[in-house]
Amino acid sequence: MASAAQIAARPKLPTLPDGTYAVPDPADRDTVTLWKVTGGNLDAWPPRRRWAPRMPPPPAGLSPEERREHRERWYASVYWPWKLAVAVEISTDPDRAAARFEQEVPQEERPDAVLRRALAQLGFPYGDDARSYAEQCAQEQRERVQAARVMVAAGFSLSTVGRLLRVSKSTVWHWARDGRHDVGQTETADAIAAALAVLEREAAEVAEEAETAAAVAAATAEAGADIDVDALLAALVDVDGWADRTA
Predict the structure, then answer these.
(1) Residue 172: Cβ within 10 Å count
(2) Per-residue pLDDT tens for 178-187?
(3) What is the pTM of this model?
């Protein structure tokens, strides 16, 4: 954690627009450094990559107070001037710095692509896939509402419809209230077929969830009480592989 002296020594960096940038290393113009700005925060890209200079070990024999002072002097005289030079370089011509990032970094290694891969490993859609997924979910929800209306109109009780669609009686009532005046009337064959398709989909999802829960329970029982949480997380997200792809 930065000390009060280190915080006080921080220069005010230029305000940078969100985006990705590539600029030369202030200490070595032959080296290109990569950056991502989000909400005004300037972070190295790819994740866990350090472009900034590293503080050398303090001289031997220093007391804790002397080591602290040594660290503060280094940040004030080396690190922050270097970071300020990077920010100024970007702010001088953000468009040029952004264009150079695109030249230096392949499409698959840019932030959106890296995030897409990480979310895909976790089973979450992103970008166009997320929009398609949202549209699919919205359509399925509309179909569930219509199925509730058809079933209520056909004379099924709110509790029965709620149980089949896995929602509360109150939700069924709200979904079906626009069609309650049709109770007892004959529904079209297409409407009934659509409602049955929704029920089949709900039943398939219930069966899939039960199968997943059973598999998790079996794996937990086999593993016993000693579950390696790190190994479990690594199985969900290959952190090392992600780092290798972004290095």
Answers:
(1) 26
(2) 654 444 455 6
(3) 0.50
